[in-house]
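sorry to bug you again but im stuck and you know this stuff better than me. what follows is a protein written twice so to speak, once as letters and once as structure tokens for the fold. mainly i need to know what kind of three dimensional shape the backbone takes. anything you notice is useful, everything is just below:
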Amino acid sequence: MQEAGSVGIVETKYLTFAEPPNEMVLECGRPLGPITLAYETYGELNQAKDNAILIVHALSGDAHAAGYHHPGDKQPGWWDIMIGPGKAFDTRKYFVICCNVIGGCQGSTGPSSINPQTGRPYGLSFPIVTVRDWVNTQKVLIDHLGIEQLLCVAGGSSGGMQVLQWVVSYPDRVRLAIPIATTSKLSAQAIAFNEVGRQAIQSDPNWREGDYYGKMVPRRGLAIARMIGHITYLSERSMHQKFGRKLQDKTVYGYNFLTDFQVESYLRYKGDHFVKRFDANSYLYITKAMDYFDLTQAYGSLEEAFAGVQAKFLVISFSSDWLFPTYQSKEIVSALRRVDAYVIFTEIQTDYGHDAFLLESEQLSSLITNFLSHGWNQKA
């Protein structure tokens, strides 16, 4: 399994903190504890502890960003194309960390976790979490690892939101920041898509107001939510190039409501595959956290939010991303430049839409490699 460029076999680790009576007070005002974070690390932390990079994941991501969990594992981590020896986040040089956000369902505390006060899964009794809460818990992990300052925080989509929150909440703890295909606040259109997905889940008879654990899960609702979301991650051109109007195992229309087109089959596959690994309640909580994200709300303007940042920035957008279009990245860049922050901006020309950061890209890899190397060489 130790193929060239792979970090090989990796193990998910767990950190538990905020034990009662020392619970963490969340942005919503409610306490939460104990809190467990699932995380993975790749590479070695150097003696100076100044080579650490935090990778933050998007909506359906997890702590498993690179490598394999066992020798027979056929599916590497979600950003394996970018993390490993000789890759953009070169583990021969950097110590890379990735953790699952709270509210999730893949190792970190979330609605499917057991509420110690009741002995049953939290369900909807789990408190609403925000991007700021995610970052605050990540800071606890970074402190636990003995890292005073991160060399870099990087991530795409809602991961990019976390990058921006990091540099605002903890400006002295981040040297370099790489927000990719992201925004400083979710648009009405993006909130609308999230709400349709949530309504699909909540309309499923098996949802039972979130109390479905140990029973039939709301598979159909979650699958539809994923189908809706997946459409927004692609571009019209990429869908046309991949599917066009090709029929699925047919030469003529079936004249019924079964699957006729390849694109229909693809979306159903994506939805069915998603429900095998994700929790419906977590989908509600994570999309709501994204909806609430707005850096201007607490500060009055994006410029004021960035007034104290100390990091250097590489901001990347994709030309065909209509979920988080380039103009939203340019708003971030403009605000950073108004406060005299160091910022490099690149719009990558691609037909792959919002999900382009998850796909093989020589240009993306080169941009990140050069930015990290420049920042590393100027560490003072």
